[in-house]
Write the structure tokens for this entry.
Amino acid sequence: MKQLIFIGAPGSGKGTQSESLIKQNSYRHISTGDLLRKEIAEGSQLGKTVKEIMDKGNLVTDAIVLELLKKNCDLKNGKYIFDGYPRNFDQAKVLVQQFLANQDFLAIYFHIDTGVLVERLTNRRSCSGCGAIYNIKFSPPKTLNVCDRCGHTPLTHRSDDHVDVVTNRIDVFKKSIDPVIEYFKSLGRLETIDAAKSSDWVYQQILSKI
Ligand code: AMP
């Protein structure tokens, strides 16, 4: 198995696919967004520093995310899915040269027309108990606001999944991601997947590439 790097706009399905891979293929998931939200929830100094930036949908500094990665991943002892990292060219270089030197890795680009993402994101809810992700329009839980998997209630709506912030997050993604994609392509380590297709189809595609 390879170390995996998921690249894709917010709402392109990286989190959902990560969940499936963790359950069925013993991958570990490292989402810099989740790590940052955890810091905010715990009220740490770092959490206080990043909250305002994240609430606007902008990127936090490379140094902050790098520190979190160092603290939270142990590449010698596991296969990881990097979700939400790298977000720019400098982060991509650090990941490849510092973390993944001597590792087999593959970047998967979740390609999707960003026009459909606003609706996906504004309807997204997640379980703060187990992390399961729902879309209240397209894949709602069986009981309104209750997690199918662990029964936790209520499901939460991320503060940066509101429409004005979502638009900025998508713009930020579009402005910074091309050099990242080109970089992995130049290394011969990029696969592109049509993320507009069903999540089962996307999952099978990922399996066929790893
Ligand atoms: P995500 O959960 O990946 O959508 O990330 C939520 C927010 O966390 C982003 O809008 C950024 O503010 C911040 N963030 C997550 N990952 C990174 C990263 N690699 N570099 C900078 N900021 C990040």
Observations:
- Helices lie at 14-25, 32-42, 45-56, 62-72, 89-99, 117-122, 163-186, 199-209.
- The chain is about 45% helix and 15% strand.
- Strands lie at 3-8, 28-31, 80-83, 105-111, 124-126, 133-135, 190-194.
- The first strand starts at residue 3 and ends at 8.
